[in-house]
Structures are given as structure tokens and as C-alpha cells.
Write a structure and sequence with these properties.
alpha+beta, single chain, 3 domains, 12 helices, 3-stranded antiparallel beta sheet, 12 strands, Phosphorylase Kinase, domain 1, Transferase(Phosphotransferase), domain 1, 31% helix
Length: 428
């Protein structure tokens, strides 16, 4: 246990603990070489022992250190000392946005737009240098005097994104802010940050997140399958142009969102606000990964879960790159490729799905039309997220049944998992 007063690398003296999270603990520290106060994030022991992660973390810390923007909490240094790995960042004053929302509930539309516009400006700068945050959420936004904001943790989430952290149980992000492509295992780019910011803006305007559920898995399924409601449905004082910003930012298809974070910032801060917010039809999500999961450790038996539609008809994918959970499919085309895609998703999602609802999280009081379709309807194909491996089968069965699907469970002998856990989910 690292305590206050310790000096790391003969340079950074820890003063007091100021925050803690899934990645580690943040201390106020003093850089005794430059005589300035800094924020020092000490990584958790299990992360510090993962050599592959540490190598990626070094690389991403260097990339994040290249960022220089008034709305980005700067990264100064990275180091290791006697098995302790740490990153040194700018010490920014203020409270994180999550605390602000817990204390104040919804924010005024003008204030929400001003804060979100600054976040978008920070993202535009990072994206221009090839840095994708991947974990935009209120806890990673510091709100200072005059509502000047700093986005924190650049480099950390990106480094984590490729690591095998499911074995450690570390949380990569909160399911409430995951983009559909993060939830499905598709490639993640700048558009993912734009989606997450749209969810943060929704929460600022309404005081609630758009989707909640009994588990993080169910929340991610909603991000993939349901439209984000207009903030004005919860808060009638929301201006129409902010409804449109949220709608555009949270499109399921990444290509249908704002062309870049700079365009979103301009729309929020009144700089050619209408230039990139033309109404768009709601497209289907492209590039989703199929949900065939393999791997793990343990003993006894596991449950393999296969999905069929109630009426026995097939639902065909709308795009060759859009694998959907379909009914009565007679062959497992691309089985090996699907397995590889899902295996990649285990890195990005499963550990996030093990988390509980964030403190104070509230569900928007509306649902999209998509969630109200008749049971068994096939006009809007239902997608399930990857990340179901080694989760409780009964939970997924209930979710699928609610969406109008019949679930066939098969018990198979295996030494990988405990009884009642999901081994695979695939078309039958």
C-alpha cells in the first residue's frame, strides 16, 4: 500500500489521496524538481503487473503527453518505482461533472451546451493527433471556476482497450456511456467519443441517463437496439437545437453522427450551429460483431444459449458487415471470424458489464418506438452484445424473451465454467 509522504522516483512526493477508481488511486503530489503541484495516478497492482498493458500504457501516455489544449488535463510524465506504475497529470481545480450532476440534477440548457462544447473542443484536438479517449463520462470531466472544464484520463482508456483486463475484473468504462460499436465489439474511432458525449449532454439536460437496466449487459443492449429519446421529452425547456445535437451525436451508425468533434463543438457553442445538424434518417448500425464467445477458466458445466424468433422466421442482416442475431438460421456462416471478433470484445466490454449502476443513475422516463414493437416482430432485427461469456444464463434468457425471442438452452460438458454460465451465444 502506497501512503502519503512517499516519494516516487526521487521526484514526486505524495501528499493526499483525492480520488479513486477502477484504474487506480489519484494523489495530490508535489514535483520536487519543478516545485509544482501535480495529480499523480497510481495504477492498481493488478494492472501494474500486466507487462503487455504497461507497454501499451507507456506508449499511450507518450501520445497523451503530446496534447496541449485548454480543455485537456495535460499529461506530464509516466514512471515506475519499485513495482508501482504511475502517470503524472496536470492538477486541475474543481469537481468532476458526476459530482456536479449528483448535487444539482439537470443543468440549464445554456450551461449544458457550454460544458459539452468545451468537451467537444478537447476531443477535436485529441482526434486531430490520433488520440481517441474511449471513456468519455461525467467522472472524467473536471468543472472549474466559470464552468471551464478539463477532460481527464486521455491515454489511459485507450491503453486499456487492447489489454486482457477481463481476468483482472477492472472496469473499462461505464455501460451508460458506451457507444453501440463499443458494445458490439466493432472498431472504435473518434465517432465513439462523439456518441458518449451525446449521452453526457443528454444527462446534463435531463438529470438522467437515457438507458438503465438490471445489469450493465441490459444497458449495453439498449444502446445497440434503442434510440436515445429527445431530451425535451424529459425536460420541456430543452431548446430544439439541443435535441438535434443529441439526436445527431447518438446515431447508431457512426458515419451518421457529426463529421467530427469540431463540428459538434461548433453546433453547441453557436459557431455555424446549423452547418452540420441537418436531419438524418435513422440508419441501422454497421460493423457490429457477432456474439460467439469462447475461452475462460473453471470447472463443471456451462450453458450454451441459442436464439430463435417466436414465429420461426428468419431475419436477414441488412448489410454484409452487420451480423445480427437472427431466427432459425440453418448454418453458422463465418463462425471462426465471429469468434475472433467476440474474443476481441472480451477485452473492451465484459469487465464493464460486471459493474453496478452508477450512484444516482436515473433512467429517462421515455422509451423509443423500437422498444415497443410487438413481440415476435422481425421488421427491426434484434442485436445482442458480445461480452456474455461466463455470465448468468438466466439473465440473458429473460432479456431475449422480453425482446420476442425464444431461447433454447443446451447443457454441454466442459471444464471451463460453472453450471448455469453462458459458454456461447450464436444463431441456431
Amino acid at each position: 500500500m502506497v501512503a502519503e509522504g512517499r516519494i516516487l522516483s526521487a521526484r514526486y512526493r505524495l501528499e493526499e489521496r483525492i480520488a479513486a477508481g477502477a484504474m487506480g488511486t489519484v494523489f495530490r503530489a508535489v514535483d520536487e524538481r519543478l516545485h509544482r503541484s501535480v495529480a499523480l495516478k497510481l495504477l492498481k497492482d493488478d494492472l501494474a503487473e500486466d507487462e503487455r498493458f504497461i507497454e501499451r500504457f507507456r506508449r499511450e501516455a507518450r501520445s497523451a503527453a503530446a496534447l496541449s489544449h485548454p480543455n485537456v488535463a495535460g499529461v506530464f510524465d509516466y514512471g515506475e518505482d519499485d513495482g508501482c506504475s504511475y502517470i503524472v497529470m496536470e492538477l486541475a481545480s474543481g469537481s468532476d461533472l458526476a459530482c456536479v450532476l449528483r448535487a444539482e440534477g439537470s443543468l440549464a440548457p445554456e450551461r449544458s451546451a457550454r460544458i459539452a462544447g468545451q468537451i467537444a473542443a478537447a476531443l477535436a484536438h485529441a482526434h486531430s493527433l490520433g488520440v481517441v479517449h474511449r471513456d468519455i463520462k461525467p467522472a472524467n470531466v473536471l468543472v472549474g471556476s466559470g464552468d471551464n472544464i478539463k477532460v481527464t484520463d486521455f491515454g489511459i482508456a485507450r491503453a486499456t482497450g487492447d489489454s486482457t483486463l477481463t481476468a483482472t475484473g477492472s472496469v473499462l468504462g461505464t455501460a451508460h456511456y458506451l457507444s453501440p460499436e463499443q458494445a458490439s465489439g466493432a472498431p472504435v474511432g473518434p465517432e465513439s467519443d462523439i456518441y458518449s458525449l451525446g449521452i453526457v449532454l443528454f444527462e446534463m439536460l435531463t438529470g438522467a441517463v437515457p438507458f438503465t437496466g438490471d445489469s450493465a449487459i441490459s444497458v449495453a443492449m439498449k444502446h445497440m437496439n434503442e434510440d436515445v429519446p429527445a431530451p425535451s421529452e424529459l425536460n420541456p425547456h430543452t431548446p430544439a437545437h439541443l435535441d438535434e445535437v443529441v439526436r445527431r451525436a447518438t446515431q447508431k451508425d457512426p458515419a451518421a453522427r457529426f463529421t467530427d468533434a469540431g463540428a459538434m463543438s461548433a453546433a453547441l457553442l453557436g459557431e455555424d450551429a446549423g452547418a452540420d445538424t441537418a436531419p438524418m434518417s435513422a440508419p441501422v448500425m454497421a460493423g457490429a460483431a457477432a456474439a460467439t464467445l469462447v475461452g475462460g477458466a473453471g470447472e463443471a458445466e456451462a450453458t450454451g444459449t441459442l436464439v430463435e424468433n417466436d414465429d420461426g422466421t428468419s431475419v436477414l442482416p441488412t448489410d454484409s458487415e452487420t451480423p445480427l442475431v437472427t431466427a432459425s438460421m440453418k448454418r453458422w456462416a463465418g463462425y471462426a471470424l465471429a469468434g475472433l471478433a467476440a474474443l476481441a470484445l472480451l477485452v473492451a466490454l465484459v469487465s464493464a458489464f460486471t459493474g453496478d449502476e452508477p450512484e444516482g443513475a436515473r433512467r429517462a422516463g421515455t422509451t423509443s418506438q423500437r422498444s415497443e414493437r410487438p413481440t415476435g416482430s422481425t421488421d427491426e432485427p434484434f442485436r445482442i452484445p458480445s461480452g456474455l461469456y461466463d455470465t448468468e444464463a438466466s439473465l440473458f434468457v429473460a432479456e431475449a424473451a422480453e425482446a420476442g425471442f425464444r431461447v433454447k438452452e443446451e447443457t454441454v460438458p466442459t471444464d471451463e465454467l460453472d453450471p448455469g454460465r453462458i459458454l456461447t451465444v450464436s444463431p441456431g
